[in-house]
Amino acid sequence: MRVVHVVTAFPRYAGDPITPWLVELVRRQRAAGIDASVLAPSYRGGPADEGFAIPVRRFRYAPAGLETLTHDETVPDRLRRRPAYGALLPGYLAGGTRAAAALGRSGVDVAHVHWPMPHVLMGAAMRRASGGRTALVCSYYSVEINWVRRRLPALVPFLRWSVRTADAVTAISHATAEAVRDLESLPVAVVPYGAALEDDGAGISRPAFAGGDPLRLLFVGRLVERKGVEVLVRALAKLRAEKPATLTVIGEGKWAGRIRAEVSRLDLDEMVRFTGHVSADRLAAEYEAADILVLPAVVDSKGDTEGLGVVILEGLRFERPVVASEVGGVVDIVREGESGWLVPPGDADALAARLLEVAANPERAREVAARGRTMAGETFSWPRILAATRKVYELAMERRGRRP
């Protein structure tokens, strides 16, 4: 089976934090006998193969110095911040559809389109160029649906068409699947990310709450509006009157300045540590040093929120107690009192209270985290994700009249 993943962005170098789960998915598909490759936009004219042992075709869409529509931040954020980037869209679509058509003529069984707004056009071009033999699978991650509905309602008919024209449709979470079904009442398979870290049965070298005070809080993720890190900062300010605590913030993003400003405004500079992007080894060490992983996600001004919350899976692999917002796809992972704890999004008071509650009973917190690790290993394991994805491919091929 030959599969081409059509994506907005693909890592540019080893250690690039962009979509590591996608790299792992393609690697594992290839190991399982699927001839999987990637079609992605170029970034500043960069090379097609960055040493991932994965075939990557980068389509060009502008002079090298202008190829910056993707990778550094999401396309919706970039267009909102600087509408002039919209001038790159015609070249982007033309370059992508040309490359997709060439692949379609070479013989592709499945075009797996991630973020179908607007990449479904590339998948459709691949299918058309193949004489209708290529099956089209569209995977939705919530951001494209929320973006169009909130900011570009005139394009809702196109979004509906993207669902109808696909031979099979997947969503990252049950919340996203419901949003897709609101567009078109069609079957949607829920296929989440694979677990971010391999569960090899290794023990945890430092249990949560093993070091006494201060309480060590950890946030990991892009520093963007929907992550709600400033809510966590305000919760820390409320928490300090009751319990000594520190916060480590791992990640980079355009919201960093606002978060730092909030830290300074609340006189928390000595309690909050910003690390920026870190290596995999350093990240593992930070998880093991933490007592509680916090994902204070909110619904942002675009109407976007967490499609799943893959960082929670990482935290559970290290048996870190998790406190997260009850929003979006987070609830597919965090079950209240079973695999973690949920709080209302944007409520710093509730978040501070819940952090104190979890910290007050370390033994209970460790039990919940251990159950969460088991659940994550069962529900989000790579074998399960690979099997579910292959099943979607086979269904799509059958709808094209093809034998998988």
List the topology elements.
Blueprint: E1 2-6, H1 20-31, E2 35-41, E3 56-59, H2 75-81, H3 89-106, E4 110-114, H4 116-129, E5 135-140, H5 143-151, H6 156-165, E6 168-171, H7 174-183, E7 189-190, E8 215-220, H8 229-239, E9 245-250, H9 256-265, E10 272-276, H10 280-289, E11 292-295, H11 310-317, E12 322-325, E13 341-343, H12 348-360, H13 362-379, H14 382-399
Parallel strand pairs: 1-2, 1-4, 2-3, 4-5, 5-6, 6-7, 8-9, 8-11, 9-10, 11-12, 12-13
What does this structure look like?
The chain is built from 14 helices and 13 strands. The model has no long low-confidence stretch (mean pLDDT 92). The relative contact order is 0.12. The protein is 42% helix and 15% strand. Helix 8 packs parallel to helix 9. The strands form two sheets. Strands 3-2-1-4-5-6-7 form a seven-stranded parallel beta sheet, sandwiched between helices. Strands 10-9-8-11-12-13 form a six-stranded parallel beta sheet, with helices on both faces. The chain is α/β, with parallel strands linked by helices.
Features:
about 400 residues; about 40% helix; alpha/beta; 13 strands; six-stranded parallel β-sheet; seven-stranded parallel β-sheet
